[in-house]
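User: I'm curious whether this sequence folds into something compact or stays loose and floppy. Could you predict its structure so I can see for myself?
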Amino acid sequence: MIRATLQQLRVFQAVAEHRSFTKAAEVIHLTQPGVSIQVKRLEEILGVSLFEKVGNQIYLTAEGKALFATCHDLFERLAVFEEELASIHGEVAGPLNLAAVTTAKYFLPNYLGAFLRQHPNVVPQLKASNRERIIERLDANEDDLYIMVTLPQRDDIETHPFLDDHLVVFAHPEHPLAKKKNITLEQLSKERVIAREAGSGIRLTYERMLKEKGVSIEPYMELGSGEAIKQAVMSGIGIGALSTFSLKLELETGRLVVLDVEGFPISRRWHAVHRRGKRLSRAAQAFLEFIQEAEIPGVTQPLDLDD
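Assistant: Here's the prediction. I'll summarize afterward.
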């Protein structure tokens, strides 16, 4: 009988997933030497090498690959057992793994905070990244739920709308267009537009609208985050387009203003997404139902764009 401990297997799994002892140590909150010792002891127990080093990279050996698959199955079964145990006691508990596009960071913690007040034994983990990376995680089925606006066109997912959003064009309060009404898209095309990177959900949304209107706008500058775009606009470099969720503080304090542009604001909806046929954990199912029903102050009430 193999006498490896669950802790040793969890440490091994973390190293195998991240292909790095250092990264694994950060994720599971151990020191790097501690991780190395646990893996070494596991190899001694099994009598095999689980990793091999080629250059600066580590790779799983054949035995390591076999153990990695076994760990995945083992911990999945343990998670199911924990859910069943909690269900017997009528409790919503256990891990809740979420992945979301970056703009969701402005409202998703509000949902999580309210949800955890009702279910304090749920342990959430939130990964925020750009749309491309979130879809990669969806493809690999790495999480329970994926929070996004611009949905991939595919048949193997289920989508659950839960929150309205608006995409607006904004500028510095002293920008020449700040006080103008009925700004045309042709006028907008002559401005220095600061855009998100190609493929981002926000950019895909407004470029689709522009294409329908027969207008093309070449970005003056591309930046990889909404925060960077806001800073550039507040510095007077140009104008931008973002969700009102990411602009709430700056609009309320007068550091930025919404422009009255043809075709804007663009209304859209946030969705919770998962692979079709996926068995959601009790915690994930409860959170999905919660976000579709909850009224969250400052989130579910739309921002007044007429001020």
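Summary: The chain has three domains: 6-84, 91-163+269-293, 165-267. The chain is about 40% helix and 20% strand.
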